[in-house]
């Protein structure tokens, strides 16, 4: 079934620990979550498997030209950019690094379109640099909710800080608080 | 294949402390006192998680990661930086694919052990 919400989570160094905390005990939600985490390609499958053990949601590696489904978490594969076409289909493509990153959080977030009543939520977790800041500005512009991991819980506050400095972040939260906010904003799958 | 943890730090006290914490958790370790020693261990076939200090004489953590990258040690290696530095140099952005995490010194035991277990699990071959 088509999701009522699209959640995009961007992370780099220190992100895996934060993601583990967010997904531990996360119930199946009525939305789709897409995760961009910088990591070596050879751990993509085990990373998915590891997160899948923590949540009731179905965690899978994102595949090109597949539709978003509610209750699913899509992990962006390494070394390809990811976009969502018309808020429905996953599109993977080769390209130069953006903000030193491929996949890039900005590239993904900027592909999301304004389409009420669908909710859009952008989350920036621990990581070095500024990937995701431009994407957050875009999501806010189209009426999305925006969250940055708070400084005390982030291994590296670079990416969350850059997002906060756009003045377009609604909440700065710990990973546990992000999990609760997601449940509240997206709702459980019926 | 047996995956281990390599602790790379020029301070012997740090090596001993981290090693004993991981020993208690039954996590196999080996130690290296410099970036060059780390590279020698890789040449000998080390596979696993490298806990890398940044500030080291002769070859610092960034330079060691650059050498690891140049030598093409890509598969079966993950790196986590152990750092007392509050800010990291932007040059490390180039190695985002390698460096999964940054654990701050002084080291919190629970954080370290949980992170190491999490990252070793990523390296375990698929069933």
Report on this structure:
The complex is a heterodimer of chains A (190) and B (127). With 190 residues, chain A is an alpha/beta fold. Chain A has a single domain (5-185), classed as 3-Layer(aba) Sandwich (Rossmann fold), CATH 3.40.50. Chain A has helices at residues 15-23, 44-52, 105-109, 133-141, 158-164, 175-186; strands at 5-11, 32-37, 58-61, 72-75, 81-85, 89-93, 119-124, 145-149, 171-173. A 7-stranded parallel β-sheet of chain A has the order 3-4-2-1-7-8-9, sandwiched between helices. In chain A, α4 (133-141) runs parallel beside α5. The longest helix of chain A has 12 residues, at 175-186. The N and C termini of chain A lie close together (11 Å). The mean pLDDT of chain A is 96. Chain B is an alpha/beta fold and 127 residues long. Helix content of chain B is 37%, strand content 22%. Chain B has helices at 12-24, 35-43, 61-70, 109-123; strands at residues 4-8, 29-32, 48-53, 77-83, 99-104. The radius of gyration of chain B is 13 Å and the shape is globular. The longest helix of chain B is centred in the last third of the chain and has 15 residues, at 109-123. The mean pLDDT of chain B is 90. In chain B, α2 (35-43) runs parallel beside α3. A 5-stranded parallel β-sheet of chain B has the order 2-1-3-4-5. Chain B has one domain: Rossmann fold (3-Layer(aba) Sandwich), CATH 3.40.50.2300. The A-B interface holds A 12-14, 16-17, 20, 38-43, 45-47, 49-50, 78, 100-101, 127-129, 155-156, 158 and B 74-76, 78, 81, 88, 90, 92-94, 96-104, 111, 114-115, 118-119, 121-124, 126.
């Amino acid at each position: 079934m088509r999701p009522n919400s699209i959640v995009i989570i961007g992370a780099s160094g220190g992100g895996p620990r934060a993601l583990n905390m967010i997904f531990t005990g996360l119930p199946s939600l009525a939305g789709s979550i897409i995760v961009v985490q910088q990591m070596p390609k050879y751990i993509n499958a085990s990373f998915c498997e590891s997160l899948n053990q923590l949540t009731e949601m179905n965690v899978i590696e994102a595949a090109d030209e597949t539709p978003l489904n509610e209750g699913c978490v899509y992990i962006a594969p390494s070394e390809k950019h990811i976009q969502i076409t018309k808020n429905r289909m996953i599109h993977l493509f080769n390209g130069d690094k953006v903000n030193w990153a491929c996949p890039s959080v900005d590239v993904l977030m900027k592909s999301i379109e304004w389409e009420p009543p669908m909710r859009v939520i952008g989350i920036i977790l621990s990581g070095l640099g500024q990937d995701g800041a431009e994407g957050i500005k875009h999501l806010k512009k189209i009426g999305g909710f925006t969250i940055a991991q708070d400084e005390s819980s982030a291994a590296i506050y670079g990416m969350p800080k850059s997002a906060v400095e756009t003045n377009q972040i609604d909440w700065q939260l710990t990973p546990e608080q992000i999990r609760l906010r997601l449940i509240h904003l997206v709702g459980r799958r019926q | 294949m047996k995956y281990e943890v390599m602790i790379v730090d020029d301070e012997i006290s740090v090596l001993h402390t981290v090693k004993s914490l991981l020993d208690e958790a039954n996590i196999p370790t080996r130690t290296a006192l410099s970036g060059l020693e780390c590279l020698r261990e890789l040449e000998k076939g080390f596979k696993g998680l490298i806990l890398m200090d940044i500030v080291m004489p002769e070859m610092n953590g960034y330079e060691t990661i650059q050498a690891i990258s140049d030598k093409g040690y890509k598969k079966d290696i993950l790196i986590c930086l152990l750092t007392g530095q509050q800010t990291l140099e932007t040059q490390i952005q180039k190695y985002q694919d390698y460096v999964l995490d940054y654990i701050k010194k002084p080291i919190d035991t629970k954080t370290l052990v949980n992170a190491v277990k999490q990252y070793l699990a990523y390296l375990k071959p698929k069933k």
